[in-house]
Design brief:
- The protein folds into 3 domains: 179 residues, Immunoglobulins (Immunoglobulin-like, Sandwich), CATH 2.60.40; 186 residues, 3-Layer(aba) Sandwich (Rossmann fold); 29 residues, no CATH class.
- Helix content is 31%, strand content 28%.
- It is elongated, with a radius of gyration of 32 Å.
- The two termini are 18 Å apart.
């Protein structure tokens, strides 16, 4: 939020808090003023009856104020969230349970739940006759706008006496944390790799036997049979290489989220949800995982140095996607720049789809990533900011490229990139 917009909002909150802390309502302030004026007028004009009027008004105000301190009692406050975990851009229902005991009825209470930055909602209301309640059950809806762990509360009740002259502000209970996960955008299916018709629904057969000259054998390991040595490949690599056996397996995909602190704004390393560009990258990563898992791939999410950022997502497992979103709820930028070393993570293998989500990509980075294209069935590069020259260099190397910008259309960027296009579609 811009500073110009945040300052008036903060000022209004401070003014509202100061107004609510004042023990007299507008009616009570008027009653005290009239009472004082009656007492002064009684002496000035010699009218004894005004003394009784002034004293009566002041006594009523005093009685209302005392009733708020010695009659009302408030206990614990608990909250429940539905769903338990909020997602950016989605709403959740909050139910507040508060204990209230009093011997008076007819009082009016205004309640509010303090919301932190990154969470919006109608967390305020009015309860008539709240002083006589044993248990208050209040509900409101909140909408998460920033990823991370947000503290809701404390719960505030402003009680007015039955005459409406005085009020008291109660801060009840503490705060409760709600985890805000990144938004998962529904991405279009892969046109060249149809999801429900492929993936784990039809296991992939890797025939790496004799006579397949275009496949990459692996290095010799102790225990391998000497009859499996590929002498042509051994002479080429200057080390013993063996043919892989024919095998059936579930196809795998990898999403690489570049967290390098050097590539993102300082806010990305400060707290979750602070940098819109990094938030676009996290959303793109988890959305790509959800799409690939639905396509039938076992998906792994790693940093550029190979460190897992969450548990692998089995093919078609929507609950695992939710768990990954929870794992990425608190991820921030950090660590060294290892983008150029990403191809080494896939050296000597034939990988399935590989989605690299990063920030600024230059021509040097595009050249460094070029060798990975030969090891991936579907190399997709999603960059938050890049030059046209870098995009062209990556595209000519075989990458399917799209540029991610905050507050745009991720689905359109994914569609264009997966169809071999190069675009500046936003997210």
């Amino acid at each position: 939020m811009p500073a110009s917009a945040a300052s008036p909002t903060r000022a209004r909150r401070v003014l509202a808090a100061a107004r609510s802390a004042w023990p007299l309502t507008l009616r009570g302030t008027g009653a005290v003023g009239l009472g004082a004026a009656a007492l002064v007028s009684a002496q000035s004009f010699g009218v004894p009856e005004l003394v009784y009027v002034g004293v009566l008004l002041l006594v009523i105000v005093l009685f209302g104020w005392v009733s708020l301190w010695f009659v009302h009692r408030y206990g614990d406050v608990s909250r429940s969230f539905s769903p338990d975990v909020a997602a950016v851009g989605h709403e959740s229902t909050v139910t507040v349970h508060a204990t209230a005991r009093s011997g008076l009825s007819g009082a009016v209470a205004r309640w509010s739940d303090e919301l932190p930055p990154g969470v919006e909602g109608d967390a305020a209301g009015l309860v008539v006759g709240a002083a006589a309640l044993e248990r208050m059950r209040l509900t409101y809806r909140l909408r998460a706008t920033r990823r991370g762990v947000r503290e809701i509360g404390p719960f505030v009740v402003i009680v007015t006496d039955p005459f409406g002259l005085t009020r008291r502000r109660h801060r009840i209970g503490g705060t409760e944390a709600v985890t805000v996960t990144p938004a998962v955008i529904a991405l279009p299916p892969l046109s060249e790799y149809p999801g429900e018709a492929g993936g784990s629904l039809h296991t992939a057969t890797h025939q790496l036997g004799e006579g397949t000259d275009n496949l990459i054998p692996r290095s010799y390991a102790p225990g391998d049979s000497m009859r499996r040595i590929n002498w042509r490949a051994s002479a080429h690599h200057d080390e013993l290489m063996v043919r892989q056996e024919e095998q059936e397996s579930t196809p795998e995909a990898t999403v690489v989220l570049d967290r390098s602190e050097q590539r993102w704004a300082p806010a990305a390393a400060a707290e979750p949800g602070a940098d819109p560009a990094f938030e676009a990258a996290v959303t793109a990563a988890v959305s790509a995982v959800a799409r690939l898992a639905r396509e039938g791939y076992d998906v792994s999410v790693i940093d550029t140095d190979g460190t897992p950022l969450g548990a692998p997502v089995p093919a078609g497992d929507s609950l695992a996607v939710e768990q990954l979103s929870l794992d990425l709820a608190t991820v921030i930028a950090g660590g060294e720049d290892h983008l150029a070393a990403v191809p080494k993570l896939f050296a000597g293998t034939v990988a399935g789809p590989v989605v690299v989500v990063t920030s600024r990509v230059g021509t040097v980075d595009a050249s460094a990533l070029a060798p990975l294209v030969a090891h991936s069935a579907l190399p997709i590069l999603l960059a938050a900011d890049s030059t046209d020259a870098a995009l062209e260099r990556a595209g000519s190397a075989g990458w399917r490229v799209a540029v991610l910008l905050p507050h745009g259309d991720l689905a359109d960027a994914w569609r264009t990139a997966s169809e071999r296009g190069t675009t500046r579609a936003a997210v």
